[in-house]
C-alpha cells in the first residue's frame, strides 16, 4: 500500500454531471496515474505535465466518467485499464484489462501499491482503488449512500460489494467518490448500520440514502 509521502491525490471537478477526475502523483518517481477522464482533457494533461503518466484507469463504463478518454490516451501515450466486464459498454478494448482471472489486482509503482477492488452493482465491472489511506470509489459509494441502481437486484449487489469489500477496511479511510464531496469510511459504516436496522421495500432501488431510505 502506498504511504502518504509516496502519493499525492488531486481532485478536479468536471463536466455537466460534476464528475470527479483524480490525479495520483508519485513525486519520488516523477510518475502519475489518471483515474477517470470525464471531460476537459486540457485540465487533465496540465495536471500531469511534469510527470510520466503510467496508466489511465476508468472506474466504470458510464460515459460521463470517460468522455475525454480517447484524447487523454492519445496525448499522454499511457495505457488504459478498466474491468473487462465494462469493455462492451465502453466500446474500447483496454490495454491492460482488470479482473480477467476474477481476482483482485495490485498496481505497483516503485514502492507504492494501488489495490484494485471489484465492486459490482452500479455496473458489472465497477471498481474501487485503495491508495494509502484513500479509497476512490467511482459510483459505488458516496457520502450518505450507494450509487444509483436500476433494479433491486443491482442495489443488493452494490450493498454486498460495499459491506463485504469496502467496510472491512479501517474507519479512517478517506472516501473519494465519482461525484461530489468526500467522506470517511467510518461515517459510511455508521450510516449504513441505521439503514440495515430498518425494513425495506423489496423493490427498493434508485438513489438510496442510508439515513432516509
Helix content: 10-25%
Gyration radius, rounded:
17 Å
CATH class category label: Alpha Beta
CATH homologous superfamily (4th level) name: Ribonuclease Z/Hydroxyacylglutathione hydrolase-like
Give the overall average pLDDT.
95
**Termini Cα gap:** 35 Å
In CATH, the topology is named Metallo-beta-lactamase, Chain A
Number of helices: 5
Major β-sheet, in short? 6 strands, mixed
Question: What would the principal axes of the Cα set say about the shape?
Answer: globular
What's the CATH architecture? Answer: 4-Layer Sandwich
Order of helices and strands: EEEHEHEHEEEEEEEHEEH
Global structural class: alpha/beta
Percent in strands: 25-35%
In which order are the strands of the major sheet placed? 1-2-3-4-5-6
Low-confidence stretches: none
Count of folded domains = 1
Description:
- The protein is of the alpha/beta class.
- It has a single domain, classed as Metallo-beta-lactamase, Chain A (4-Layer Sandwich).
- Helix content is 22%, strand content 31%.
- It is built from 5 helices and 14 strands.
- A 6-stranded mixed β-sheet has the order 1-2-3-4-5-6, covered by helices on one side. Strands 7-8-9-10-13-14 form a 6-stranded mixed β-sheet. A two-stranded antiparallel sheet has the order 11-12.
- Helix 1 runs parallel beside helix 2.
- The radius of gyration is 17 Å and the shape is globular.
- The N and C termini lie far apart (35 Å).
